[in-house]
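Feature request, filed as a ticket because there's no other form

It would be nice if the structure record came with a short human-readable summary line next to the tokens. Right now we just get the raw output. Example of a typical job, pasted below so the devs can see what we mean:
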Amino acid sequence: MKQEKWLLCPVCGNKTRLKLREDTVLEKFPLFCPKCKQETLINVRQMNMSVIREPDAQTQSR
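Raw output as currently delivered:
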């Protein structure tokens, strides 16, 4: 049987509504946490999650 675990929010550490299996692969996945109401882009390979840090939007000055 494949190992499964709950995907935890990288912001608050609580369980999200998703489960991961050993063979799950996610790229640029928008993970939403129902507890802290934050959305985070993540990559998952071999049950290891990495957060994608995007630069904040800059205002354009003319």
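Something like this underneath would help us a lot:
Residues 24 and 45 are 7 Å apart (CA to CA).
The mean pLDDT is 89.
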